[in-house]
Automatic annotation (TrEMBL):
Pfam families: UDG
SUPFAM superfamilies for the chain: Uracil-DNA glycosylase-like (SSF52141)
GO MF, any single term: DNA binding
Source organism of the structure: Vespula squamosa
Compartments reported by the entry: Nucleus
Record-stated family: Belongs to the uracil-DNA glycosylase (UDG) superfamily. SMUG1 family.
InterPro entries documented for this protein: SMUG1 (IPR039134), Uracil-DNA_glycosylase-like (IPR005122), Uracil-DNA_glycosylase-like_sf (IPR036895)
BP-aspect Gene Ontology terms: DNA repair
Protein name in the entry: Single-strand selective monofunctional uracil DNA glycosylase
Assigned keywords, A-Z: DNA damage, DNA repair, DNA-binding, Hydrolase, Nucleus
Taxonomic placement: Eukaryota, Metazoa, Ecdysozoa, Arthropoda, Hexapoda
């Protein structure tokens, strides 16, 4: 029997009302969790006033699988990001970890149930990838046919008319995701060979868009009002917006640090320079023994990104990482 669809404005309040109940997630009850909003409320939030070190200590002491602890960290981050008051230029906020929770949780539980050596770090959800499936770089066919994930996909509380969430019925293909997962498929053969040593994760879990549906990345937040400098009141908003960007970075940095320590990551591969830079900042600030590397982002908009798969395969060989992805 197919999952019962729910009003996703209820799902957007999912993490606001859960404070003390224990997390109960397993592959067997995954359907029931997202089949009913009340089941979803069993998810635990780490209190907002918990310091980074205390939260990490709490997670370490909890008798939960690695995948469940990772989901807790993500929930805490989503809850805190919801408290940010974005400027009017950010007209739409998509949080696929909430409305696509069933598939996202299945991704984490299936492929991240033990420590990893390598973390591939992306930036934030794309409109035709993770925003549709709940999986980082989650191009539809790759998630369904290679990762073998499928399930209920809800909707954000407000949708941009040209960026509607239709889940696995989406007819658009995210080229970045198709390239990234396609390369892993070519090199590894099976997902199990890929995830034996590595995991794919996004630095920021939310997608931001303007009224026309243009993607606003975390890196772009601060510069969005530059064209309007001649209006003084907009100039003030510009400086205030820098504080919002700073807060996003602070929250996402904290979550990334927890995940690195939880998974005992030794190597971070930033997918693009932005992810590399944020990883370097986190590793340096928390004095973590982690090597930070990078590969070119698979976006077709990137300059000189023809033959991305061949170039990236060679890049992984040059970095000494290809041995971890043998078929």
């Amino acid at each position: 029997m197919p999952p019962k669809k729910r009003n996703c404005s209820e799902r957007d309040d999912l993490f606001k009302n859960s404070n003390s109940k224990k997390l109960k997630l397993s592959m067997s009850d995954n359907k029931n969790i997202c089949d009913d909003v009340k089941s979803c409320e069993n998810l635990t939030e780490i209190p907002n006033n918990t310091e980074n070190n205390n939260a990490s200590s709490t997670l370490s002491s909890m008798q939960l699988p690695v995948s469940e602890k990772l989901l807790l960290i993500e929930q805490e981050l989503c809850q805190k990001l919801q408290t940010i008051s974005f400027p009017s230029s950010v007209a739409y906020i998509y949080n696929p970890i909430i409305y696509a929770f069933e598939v996202h949780a299945m991704y984490v539980q299936t492929y991240c149930n033990e420590p990893k050596k390598i973390l591939f770090l992306g930036m934030n959800p794309g409109p035709w990838g993770m925003s549709q499936t709940g999986v980082p770089f989650g191009e539809i066919s790759m998630v369904r046919d290679w990762l073998k994930l499928h399930g209920f996909i809800g909707k954000p509380s407000r949708e941009q008319p040209d960026r509607k969430v239709t889940g696995f019925d989406c007819k658009r293909s995210e080229i970045s995701g198709k390239r990234l997962w396609g390369l892993f498929k070519e090199m590894c053969g099976s997902p199990q060979n890929l995830f034996k040593h590595s995991y794919v994760h996004n630095y920021c879990p939310i997608a931001l868009m303007d009224r026309k549906g243009r993607n606003i990345t975390p890196a772009e937040l601060k510069a969005i009002f530059i064209l309007f400098f001649h209006y003084f009141y907009i100039l003030i908003k510009y400086f205030l917006q820098g504080e919002e960007q700073k807060l996003i970075y602070e929250l996402c940095d904290q979550a990334l640090s927890k995940i690195i320590q939880l998974l005992d990551i030794k190597i971070i591969v930033g997918i693009g320079r932005f992810a590399e830079k944020r990883a370097q900042i986190v590793v340096s600030a928390d004095n973590l023994s982690v090597q930070v590397l990078w590969i070119t982002h698979p976006s077709p908009r990137a300059v000189g990104n023809q033959n991305w798969d061949q170039k990236t395969k060679q890049r992984l060989h040059d970095l000494g990482l290809a041995e971890y992805f043998s078929n």
